[in-house]
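Co-fold these.
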Amino acid sequence: MIQFQHVTRSYGNRVAVDRLHLDVAPGELLALLGHNGAGKTTSIKMLVGLLRPSQGQVLVGGYEVSKNPREASKLVGYVPDQPYLYDKLSGREFLEFVGEMYGLHPADVREAVAREASRFQLTEFLDQLTESYSHGMRQRTVFAAALIHEPEVLVVDEPMVGLDPQSIRLVKDLLQEYVQRGKTVLMSTHTLSVAEEIANRVAVMKAGELQFQGTLEELYDLVPQADRTLEALYLSLMEDKSSA
Amino acid sequence: MPPTSLVSNSAPAPYPSNRLPTHEREGQIFWKLRWREIRAQTERLRTRARLRTGLVLILSIVFWVGLYALFYAGFDLIVARVGQPGAPYHAETVRFVFTIFFGALQVMLVFSAGIILYGSLYASPETDFLLTLPVRDSRIVYYRFQEALFFSSWGFFLLASPMMVAYGWVVQAPWYYFCYLPLMIVAFAYIPCALGAIFCLLLINRLPYMSRLLVGGVALVVMVIAYFSIWETLNVSDADLLGPAWFQETFRRFRFTRGEWLPSTWLSNGLLEAARPIALDPEDLPWLEGGKYLLVLLCNALFLHVVVAWLGERIFRESYFGLYTRPARESKSYMVWFDRWAQMLLCFFPREIRLLIVKDLRLFRRDPMQWSQFLIFFGLLILYFLNIDRFRQHRSDIDVQAWVNIVSFLNLAVVGLIVSTFTTRFIYPLISLEGRRFWILGRLPVNRDTILWSKFLFAAGGAWIPSAALVLISDLMLNVTMMVVCMHQLICLLLCLGLAGMAVGLGALLPDFRERSPAKIAAGFGGTLNLVLSALYILIVVLGNALPCHLYLLATSPLLRYRLDPEALEFWLVVTLAGSAVLTGLVAMIPLSKGLRAFRQLEV
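Predicted complex below.
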């Protein structure tokens, strides 16, 4: 469903993503891990159409993102690390706007808004202007907007930041349930325990290069000397590559 | 619909994509978004910002009526001297006024629309959000262009509409003249704004491939050429000022504003034709002639609308990608020598105050929003002050001497008003913004009073140095007496102290810790109150001192024989100066003391 085909992205002489080759299949949750500046956000921005690869192609559902941005983004729901909401719209109006932009019929939009508001416990303050929302409420509203059209691909960048434990549980359950329905999730995170708990596969990036992609079992096999926790494996992998 | 561009043969077949909104549906969705935002914003202004909204409305109406009266008197004079429409020189004279006025505004609209569009299209998180939705690129560009059009042209509506209405009333224009007006205004404003948008899109599309040095060099050359062109056009001999030869020469020099290909000329001609009385000749139809120019404006506006949408679809995303994948410049801390100098100059203050002032100075000079506005306003004032020495030619005339005195006080008031906008925009929000960093300041072993006093000293000192220099330049160019120079300098110092105290005190008394944007904090109730009180304070101080000074000048002039007692006026001058000092003390200390009390008890 998601394909990075030998993708490189440079900023002048600095290579942010170097020949990234990565596939994510339907029904799979891939956790993208890496230090700050590893190239995770640049990769995600190329996936959602905010950046164009210098070389290579990014495909979503067979559509090349930089050449068919509308068709590709129709298949994607995106939760950025710094969510944007219209301060002067209520949560309901914002969700309706997003739903209508994805081509839903107004009646379907109303139904979808009610569904997502219920799922993310937004109903109580859905008619308040979003300028009065707390960070957690904003984050949940953005999640609801990303799922309003039930996209085939959900891309989430640091989904747990600012959420309370109850909301974290909600999001984890949601992502797992979403994958079980055959959808695709790509999640960038620093919260290794969450990745360990819900990801089918992990991809580790460092300095723009993909260091590893595979299941946790495969990672255990790669670094047998480390403890069998993702944190220990990740740190060990990073250390190995640094010293190599 | 199958995708227009797919990948290599080995790629899987594209996933079926449901129908996306049509162009029309997309437009409707965005209009609904706009309408909902306007409704919420209006409701907020009505319920939470009544003072500001009321003030803006009242001041706008006063401004409009004042301009209308001014233009009415001007056109009345033209009609009285040159004759009604149809008289030999009427059209030529009015066309001269119209073409210069609309031509100048046309250029400003191109630049303002381009700059505003850049800010809203390329440097906005909303654009990032919209780019992740299945929205057409042309729609995003058009949506942001609408905002640029509104924000850049409301000033044009406010300036041009009283002039057009005044002309219509003076010449008793037919009814259709007034029907054409709104259409002509909108169609005309659309053209330069669309051109600004086109330039903006094309420039940003090429920008990643240009070197910064080249762009800076070209901008500098353009500015120098523009400056010398304006200088050459306006630079005429003082000896013939306002004489017949001066008028003829000026008319000739401004012939470029009457070019047939300029929208400002179409608008001017359209207004003149529509305002003509209906002639006896059945083939001479003023409504038709005026209507033709209106159609020319409309057609060009619509054509440029299509060009903006076409360019948006083709180059916006490319230009956006290019802009955000340029090599990032490292943000180094430049001008360390400036901080060292500031430390040395502030050596007579306690160490804590010195450190806090230097910290605020660093933040000021590293924020282009602050120093660029400061430079623009003070730069424009310097240019104006350096060009007001024409009065020197007529110093023997007591009327001119009196005017010089009045102008010097008006300049002082202008400097004060500019300082008040800066204290409102940049000093008033400082405490509110510190609230977010209060975990640093609040835990430092520094008395909280020290923090507020440092803000006051930073504001007063930062305002006084450039203001005093500006007032001195104005006085030197006007060649006023030493007594007036000293008086102006003293009033300038008082104004800076009063305005700084008021802004810091009210800022601490009415903080807004929820808001991140200093512009929004300044636009709130406290900021508006600060601006209004500052303007009142400036008017009281300047008018209170200008009146006795003016009468004193008349009393001491050998050219006049007014029965005024100079000694009594001297006493009055001293009393008003002392009164200004007392008022300044009250204006600065009352808000500061209340602000200090509130700041000591602050819990964030």
